[in-house]
């Protein structure tokens, strides 16, 4: 067994274990920390796929910026028990829908790709190809995500100012 195979299994097991711990943990701060570990293990899987830019962005954007924003929201809101139950039910429903969608895509793609498919020799995981696709073909989704992040930042600022009055 090659070292890349062993690393794949280690990162996959770590991602699954931390993902389960996100759901099982009762403390939202602990859940956020397990989410950071899950994101880090996914970045390791990106490195194994030779997508180094995506791995770096995974760590910088998700584990860095979004998790800091998430922790600030957790600490600012101080959710009551009733609200936590509603959020948990909504989270479970959303999780079931997401797992169903991913399963549907997975089983649909099994029939489309032959099992003996090889890697594309013209595949480039560099930033030039990613940048060209991002700012030409995927410009609208990129801008929508930036607007959503801006709205989230403004929401956190407004929620924190409410406590200062």
User: How many distinct helices?
Assistant: 6
Which residues sit in consecutive blocks of at least 5 with pLDDT less than 50?
none
Distance between the termini: 62 Å
Specify the oligomeric state: single chain
CATH superfamily of the largest domain: NADH-ubiquinone/plastoquinone oxidoreductase chain 6, subunit NuoJ
**Anisotropy-based shape:** globular
* Number of beta strands: 0
Strand-and-helix sequence, N→C?
A: HHHHHH
The CATH class designation of the largest domain is Mainly Alpha
As for the number of domains, it is: 2
Structural class: mainly alpha
Strand content: under 5%
Architecture (CATH level 2) name of the largest domain: Up-down Bundle
Radius of gyration: 19 Å
The description of the largest β-sheet is:
none
CATH third-tier fold name of the largest domain: Four Helix Bundle (Hemerythrin (Met), subunit A)
Helix content: over 70%
Average of the residue pLDDT scores: 77
Describe this structure in words.
With 165 residues, the chain is mostly helical. It has 2 domains: 3-78 and 124-164, NADH-ubiquinone/plastoquinone oxidoreductase chain 6, subunit NuoJ (Four Helix Bundle (Hemerythrin (Met), subunit A), Up-down Bundle); 79-111. The protein has 6 helices and no strands. It has helices at residues 3-24, 28-48, 52-77, 81-112, 127-134, 139-164. Helix 1 packs antiparallel against helix 2, helix 2 runs antiparallel to helix 3 and helix 3 (52-77) runs parallel beside helix 6 (139-164). The radius of gyration is 19 Å and the shape is globular. The model has no long low-confidence stretch (mean pLDDT 77).
